TrEMBL record:
It comes from Jiangella asiatica. ATP binds at residues 230-237. It comes from the Bacteria. The keyword Membrane applies. This is FtsK domain-containing protein. GO terms for molecular function: ATP binding; DNA binding. Residues 468-489 are annotated as: Disordered. The chain crosses the membrane at residues 42-66. Keywords: ATP-binding, Membrane, Nucleotide-binding, Transmembrane, Transmembrane helix.
């Protein structure tokens, strides 16, 4: 009895951790914990033992051959789900064995912990890891009182601690942050598509890939107009082409293209375009097309509520009988910059600019989205009345800060990210404002004109005349008729 009392006394005098250790040793709990930690190994061993004891050597051969064969078959039949599963396994493995093991030490070393009285400390919680083409993404729950900016300040230290060239910090919602461990610049390589999926939801239209390797989307229900600019050959037309290839596959979308270059950059869309005009000199033809779209806008604004039950196009169901109309004006400076024009042409240019300005200002609730592209992003080429009403701006490579500001606005002067830094060889890379209003670099995918033409031909039966939707016919110029070269309306 005295011995038992002595033992109890001794246990009570031991520190709590050591008591737990002794209890675990005596009850065998340590064995359960060890087996649980090594559960994958234990399960594999049990399968091998079972196979061998049941089928002998044949069982062992089956165990060695069946899983890789099953995996290969799965990958061949459904590569997406196979890739997803493998990535998940890999991400879990890295979370447990690579990142969680070092997380506390890294947080302390980078001063992102919070010391507690008594020498202990709290660290932000590493919730999970996902794999992106740019590198691993760590999903972190912040400590109370922390903000993503605390991590942004320590991005350099984090990059050194994790042994990667760069760490990008992305706010991922209240109390959450994502650390993107950048191992490669995904924007350095072109993204070439040999087909483009149809856009089914105009509120989530994929348009480019961000620096984390993920697609960026736009909500076209909230966009009246876009402006885009960049030096010749920077990728404006190609960027628009890849976007159009997805949109034209939607029966509730019609496309109008006016190409101020006067070339064949957009000829691929002819089979599917409700109106196509590649005139750089016959401004009457251009005005005729713009008048048609403007007429459709006015018609919708005046009749939509009475005929369809709502004044705002985007509150009504999307319907091929009432399609969203995308109007692309490439090299818009051809029509808006009056320098060097004779008086008659100036008059036409003035009318075109006035109509475009009205479309930009009032088109949204009529379901008309105007997209203006220019290689000359100055106030002559893009009148401020138009530019300032365009909520989405895309700057491909430009060479001056003034040009960058002309497209993106004054925000670019305060940002580390600027289209002036885009290298000449990085065609298709642009700077856009993300949903939070911050500038970011993206890469537009590239679809060659033959692929684009094949897509347009495939869905040519979705093409409708603008006059089918209540647009008054126009006699503004002979160039507006379908017979005139380069014009189809
Ligand atoms: N996203 C891209 N990925 C890879 N290459 C691209 C991309 N975009 C454009 N390019 C390359 O750059 C070339 C020029 O592109 P594009 O015609 O779109 O330039 P642009 O800015 O519209 O020029 P311009 O103002 O002279 O019309 C393309 O023919 C293609 O070779």
């Amino acid at each position: 009895m005295a011995n038992v009392l002595r033992l109890v006394k001794m246990l009570l005098s031991l520190p709590r951790r050591r008591v737990n250790g002794v209890a675990s040793l005596l009850t065998g709990w340590w064995l359960v914990r060890l087996l649980w930690r090594l559960k994958a190994l234990v399960a594999a061993t049990l399968v091998v033992v079972f196979a061998y004891s049941t089928w002998g050597w044949v069982g062992l051969i089956l165990v060695a051959v069946v899983p890789p064969l099953a995996s290969l078959t799965w990958r061949a039949v459904h590569p997406q789900s196979h890739g997803w599963f493998v990535n998940r396994l890999l991400a879990r493995h890295r979370l447990r064995h690579l990142y969680r093991a070092r997380w506390d030490a890294v947080m302390v070393a980078c001063n992102l912990h919070r010391p507690l009285p008594g020498g202990d400390h709290l660290t932000p919680r590493l919730v999970t890891v996902s794999l992106a083409s740019v590198g691993d993404v760590l999903h972190v729950r912040l400590l109370d009182g922390q903000a993503p900016a605390d991590f942004t300040r320590q991005a350099d230290e984090l990059a050194h601690a994790f042994g990667v060239p760069d760490v990008r910090v992305v706010a991922a919602g209240p109390g959450r942050v994502e650390l993107v461990l950048v191992e490669r610049d995904v924007l350095a390589e072109p993204v070439i598509l040999d087909d483009v999926p149809a856009v089914t939801d105009l509120r989530r239209v994929r348009f480019a890939i961000g620096e984390d390797g993920r697609w960026r989307t736009r909500d076209y229900a909230n966009i009246a107009a876009e402006v885009g600019g960049g030096v010749p050959g920077s990728g404006k037309t190609a960027g628009e082409t890849s976007l159009a290839c997805g949109l034209i596959q939607n029966p509730a979308v019609q496309y109008v293209v006016i190409d101020g270059k006067g070339g064949e950059d957009w000829s691929w869309i002819t089979p599917r375009a409700a109106a196509y005009c590649a005139e750089d000199e016959n401004l009457e033809a251009v005005l005729a097309v713009v008048e048609q779209v403007h007429g459709l806008m006015r018609h919708r604004l005046k009749t939509q509520k009475r005929e369809r039950g709502g004044a705002n196009f985007w509150n009504l169901p999307l319907d091929p009988a009432h399609p969203a109309v995308f109007v692309v004006v490439d090299e818009v400076q051809t029509f808006t910059d009056p320098k060097g024009m004779d008086n008659d042409t100036k008059q036409l240019a003035f009318q075109i600019t006035a109509r475009l300005s009205a479309l930009v200002k009032k088109g949204r609730s009529a379901g008309i989205i105007t997209r203006l592209l220019t290689q000359k992003p100055t106030s002559d080429a893009l009148p401020t009345a138009i530019r300032d009403n365009a909520s989405v701006r895309t700057a491909w490579r430009v060479v001056t800060d003034d040009a960058a500001e002309a497209i993106l606005g004054p925000v670019v002067r305060r940002s580390d990210i600027t289209p002036v830094d885009i290298g000449e060889e990085m065609r298709g890379v642009a700077v856009v404002a993300n949903a939070a209003g911050r500038l970011e670099r993206v890469r537009f995918p590239y679809v060659d004109e033959h692929t684009a033409e094949a897509i347009a031909t495939r869905v040519a039966d979705l093409r409708r005349e603008l006059t089918d939707f209540g647009t008054p016919t126009t006699d503004a110029g002979e160039g507006a008729s379908g017979e005139t070269a380069g014009v189809k309306a």
